[in-house]
Amino acid sequence: MTNIALLIDCENAKPDSIDGILAELAEKGTINIRRAYGNWKKEAGWERKLHPFAIQPIQQFAYTKGKNAIDMCMAIDAMDLLYTETIECFALVTSDSDFTPLVGKLISKGKSVIGFGESKTPEPFVNACSLFIHTDDFKEPSADNPLPSRSTRKTRNELRRDTVLMSTLRTAIESVKGESGFAPMTRIGQYISNQSSLSSKNYGYARWTDLIRATDYFEEHATENNQVGFSSKKSQSG
Length: 238
Fold this sequence. Notes:
The protein contains 9 helices and 9 strands. It is of the alpha/beta class. It has a 6-stranded parallel sheet, with helices on both faces. The protein has a 3-stranded antiparallel sheet with strand order 7-9-8.
């Protein structure tokens, strides 16, 4: 199992998102370290979330007005963990682009970095992460919404209007297609994960296969091993 360190910037994250974040990480490995950074005299809502999920609170006062001591503390801890613990993946919960250099450093040391933040998160931080998952729709579980990390599913036209998404899909399929002209889904997924921080879940789809089908833009094929594959359509409309 992948060992994960979860570090939360409570100044730039909503407490209601933690249920969804933990649900996402449970699919990827074991969360060995769970830490939340904040000034507990000021942060509202986070304290009630810490103990139920065994998250260690890290108190950090603002020493000087206008300076972000919490960011510094979280970055220092991440670097300490990098060199003293066996961690394969860092999960950073923040919408603050100031952590972009930290992400670059962790990735340069062979670690994967999963970012969790709102859709307003600046692109430099989003693009720096190995994977970035939007938390806008993450809610506490309830009778009406038992899945805390369910995102609103994008329609065919909404998917097609996303130029970054469509360009990534076209490039992935063209880059890994074989002599037959179509690309196996396993290789498409690998290409996307290696070349971008996009997640199909940000669009409301559990798998890339389902999202690609929903665009109705690519031809679906069965590979030699009866696996799913895709190729670009010869003509497009709509």
